[in-house]
Amino acid sequence: MQPSASTPRVTAILVAANGSDHLDRTLNALAAQTRPPEGLVVVDVGSTDGSTSELSFGGSAQLSRIAAGRSFGEAVRHGEQVAPRADAEDGTDEWLWLIGHDNSPTPGTLAALLGAVEIAPSVAIAGPKLVNVDDPARIAAFGESMTRMGRSVTLVQDELDQGQHDRHTDVLGVSAGGMLVRRSVWNHLGGFDPALPDVDAALDFSVRARLAGHRVAVVPEARATSAGPIEEFGRAKVSERRRVRMHRQAQLHRRLTYSSAGVLWIHWLTLVPFALGRAIGHLVAKHPAAVGGELAAAFAVAFGGGVGRARKTLAANRKLGWAAIEPLRISWRRVHEHRTTSRDVELARVEDAPIARASFLADGGIWVVLAAAVLSVVTLFPLLGSPALTGGGLLPLSTDVGDLWRNVGYGWHSLGTGFTGPSDPFAAVVAVLGSITFWSPSTSVVLVMLLSFPLAALGAWAAVRKVTTRTWVPVIGAVLYTVAPALVGAVTTGHLGAVIAHVLLPWLFLTLVEAHRSWASASGAALLFAVVAASAPSLLPVLLIGWLVALAVGWRHAHRRVFVPVPAAVLFVPLVLAQIARGNPLAVFADPGVPAATPAPSALQLAIGQPLPDWNGWLSAVAPLGLGDVVLPIAMAVLALPVAASAVGAVLGHRWSLAGTALVAALLGYATAFGATHLTVTGVGSTTTIVWPGSALSVFALAVIVAACIGVDTVPRAAPVLGLVGTVFAAVAVAPAFAAFYLDRAAIQPTSGRVLSAYVNAEAQANPDVGTLVVQPQTDGSLAVALERGQGSTLDDQSTLDATALSLSSSGSRLATLAGNLASRSGYDPAPALRDLGISFVLLDDAPDDAEARAVHDRAAGAIGQDARFTSIGETTNGSLFHYEGDVDRTSSGSAATKATHVLYLVVIGVVFGAAALLAVPTAPRRRRATSNVLEADEPATTFDEERDE
Q1: Which runs of E-coded beta strand occur in 388-540?
Q2: Which of 84, 476, 699, 786 could pair with 669 as two cysteines, CB 3.0-4.6 Å apart?
Q3: Is the pLDDT assigned to residue 823 strictly greater than 60?
Q4: Residue 941 pLDDT > 60
């Protein structure tokens, strides 16, 4: 039977896209309508789940199929075209009811929608209240609006439905699912914008209808389900990157479509620059996956087309100005409320979290850090007030921050005779440290040494607190880690990288453990991973194994941990490739800084955490008694026994898995330290030296201490006594090492920051490339030769590529030949070599207390002093200085290509580490003040002829 002229004709267009979970229920709901539609068109969008394979219709219902990948709007357009039309002469009012496969309506939904449009003829679009498909008592979407800048906002979302919003019916837009739209309006406006395939298509269509003079309303009595937002319709999963791109691209497209011709070009020009700024904002907000979506959206809108067609369609149908819909738009105050609502949930979770196991202020944390600070002042008192340090593995830093960064990355390095290649990753760490105290870069090294003890205590306290429950146990762990021989040994021998690694290892442990929870922790772990690896390259195997284990254990959140080694890789890849190319890949593990001879400790000494074979200074203390070889090994083993017993005993408690993991890490640290004592890749004078084992022993110490504290934490009664005994024994074992500066056994010493003499420094002010040939007599009768530029070699100049070279370069051989002939009487003419190498000074170092060294020193002093081409400047704090009176050439500073490569590499480092640093900045939710949910304007917008509704 055909409907009468006064009866609206409704054609339901049901779009199905792999909707097997919902389609049957939606079809049944359509059949159960108290006011059924006159026609039904089911549009299958390339379903592959068999949901429509057995469907068959007759009469006014039909099934039509289109290719997969078509949007909801395209499917509706296709369904409208194949749906029967009423006879134009009978005046039937035709409507389209847009239904998704998950929009199961209640029996009275269509009747309620038609009732709303019948009493208000100006309403051309009506939408139901969408509720959650799994929880119908919760509103999924109820009305849409947008800000004045085009950001779309769902007016009511994820709220318990108590009828609190039912009086607000006049809205700017409604969702596509369940929308009832006048067919003539649909065709007149051209349906959904093809440039908005998913997000905001219904909102844009509603806005165009409003500007064409029609009303848009929501009908609270009409209800339909929704399984998710429109971007998830027909998709198994939508990544965060794609979701961000969809929403942002829709917003930008509408912004350009709605803007006036006068400001359109401004919006277009700012698309990409604003996208870059918002990408940084996503990093700060811990949404790195959104960065790619943000940029892709900007480029797609800027160069993808579609805006011109949309603007023509809008202009052709527009009858009213934007002021007419102004009351229905949302202010930024409401947007802010919408954002902060989600933060309240997180804040409640944080506030309801269990109370911390130990308080830093109330449970002794602050006192152990202050005690460590006092220990630092007493132990390192000679360093207080010093502007720089030298000796061991240390030299002062360059006095200019720009020079620090020029030594970072791939480029020209003036060390020795000069070379082009990658710097050590540690150069970047040194540059950052020097930049912190930019007025005196070397001061940062002094501060690191002075603060190493309290910072180590703080980090160990936090790490142990994470794995224990008793409030006083972290204090035990902090003391044990602070007095670890690896730390005091690294400080007194000037191994700056090892000191930094020791201080940061507990924080790396904490951030890596927490990386699965947040991007801030994951990015913090990435930064710490890079700094620790750069400071102590010998730890690379341990760090990589630890990362792989964390990745495997937390595989559900692997997307956060998987990027942890990326910043370290950016630093290390050039050096690794360079060492592989020269056939010396193991040299990657060489210690950064000044090469210093390190005696190898025994396996037993390594087992009790000692990086040097002096038994923590006890060897010289008991040497007069003649008991060192017999008593010391036994005594040190006994002193280490309480901590070792606690660590091993921890596997017998209920936290055996965590303790066992710590012991495995300790074994890895010990194996790495043992391997370091057998790896000789760095040249020191005429010999080679082992890799510093103290860095690996820091890993060993931290792991053993964590296991021991777990053991102490689980002992019922004897815990306090066991912890106290272990701590006292550990302090006794290492006590003499803390007196190294007072016993004159420390390798480092304070200095003014000047490397060469004042005379050379004055010359370097005018000629920064002036060369100084440094000749050092050795105890075996040989000479060690070095070439220093400007004011002398600095710590940031040092390179393991130079220290681990397997053979001399041609210029290096020439330098050695020059030094050998200058140090003895011969017929060799040094002028060509001095000129080509740019050498203006020769510095003959003082000889050590050795007969052969003094003999070679005297011979060299006589040969150079009697050469008429040299003028003796006199004795300096470093040795005898001579000036060459001939002309010398200026040295190369690298090609233009090398300089460009250096700048490009610094940019890459800046981008990678800048992004990681932004992500690592913690963000905290803020509680918002209670505000009303009432819309800003209760009155309907005057975008229609009110007389039509009377």
Answers
A1: 388-390, 411-413, 419-421
A2: 699
A3: yes
A4: no
571 with 698, same domain: the answer is yes
Whole-structure pTM over 0.85, yes or no?
no
Element (H, E) at 682: strand 680-684
* CATH code, domain with 239: 3.90.550.10
- Contacts of residue 433, defined as CB under 8 A and 6 or more positions apart, other chains included, come to 397, 441, 444, 445, 448
State both tokens at 67.
Answer: 């290719």
CA dist., res. 758 & res. 756, Å (int):
7
Q: What does residue 790 show for φ and ψ, rounded to 5 degrees?
A: 60, -130
- Domain extent for 609: 365-396+442-745
Residues belonging to the chain: 950
Lowest mean pLDDT among 365-369, 496-500, 626-630, 728-732: 626-630
Residue whose structure tokens are 């004078």:
685
How large is the average pLDDT for residues 406-417?
A: 85
Which residue did the predictor score with more confidence, 86 or 160?
160
Give me the pLDDT at residue 944, please: 46
Q: Radius of gyration (Cα) for the chain, nearest Å?
A: 38
**β-sheet bridge partners, residue 16:** 44
Q: Domain for residue 573, yes or no?
A: yes
Judge whether residue 817 has pLDDT over 80.
Answer: yes
How far is 104 from 29, CA to CA, in rounded Å? 6
Per DSSP, helices labelled H in 304-364 are 307-317, 332-351
What average pLDDT does the segment 57-79 reach? 89
Task: Please name the residue ranges forming H helices in 536-602.
Answer: 540-553, 558-561, 566-581
Verify that 324 and 369 share a domain, yes or no: no
- Tell me if 917 is assigned to some domain: no
Cα angle: 521, vertex 523, 527; to 5 degrees? 115
- Check pLDDT > 70 for residue 87: no
Which tens digits make up the pLDDT trace of 601-644? 999 999 999 999 988 888 887 777 766 677 888 889 999 999 99
Positions of E strands within 728-847: 749-751, 771-777, 783-789, 839-845
Residue 813 CB neighbour total at 10 angstroms: 12
Look over the chain and give the mean of its residue pLDDT values, rounded to a whole number: 86
Report whether 694 contacts 611 (CB < 8 A): yes
Among 71, 331, 114, 81, CA closest to 205: 71
515 & 471 share domain: yes
Last residue of a domain, one of 717, 745, 773: 745
The C-alpha atoms of residue 486 and residue 497 are separated, in whole angstroms, by: 12
Token pair, residue 429, equals 């760490």
The three-state secondary structure class of 268 is: helix
**Rounded Cα gap, residues 430 and 403, in angstroms:** 11
Nearest to 843 by CA among 894, 796, 789, 897: 789
Q: What is each CA distance from 261 to 268, 310, 313, 619, 627, in whole angstroms?
A: 11, 13, 15, 86, 94
β-strands 138-141, 144-146 pairing: unpaired
Identify the residue whose tokens are 């592989």.
580
Q: Which tokens belong to 136?
A: 């119908």
**Residue 807 — φ and ψ, nearest 5°?**
-150, 160
- 3 state SS of 732: helix
Residues 369 and 269 in one domain: no
Give 281-330 pLDDT, tens digit per residue.
777 666 777 888 899 999 999 888 888 999 999 999 999 988 888 888 88
| Residue 352 pLDDT level (bands cut at 50, 70, 90) | very low
pLDDT of residue 652: 83
Q: What's 178's DSSP letter?
A: T
Q: Which residue bears the tokens 């409208």?
A: 80
Number of domains the chain contains: 2
Among the listed residues 512, 507, 506, 486, the one whose alpha carbon sits nearest the alpha carbon of residue 497: 486
The candidate with the shortest Cα–Cα distance to 475, out of 495, 452, 490, 457, is: 457
**β strands within 755-896, DSSP E:** 771-777, 783-789, 839-845, 870-875, 879-884
Mean pLDDT of 221-239: 86
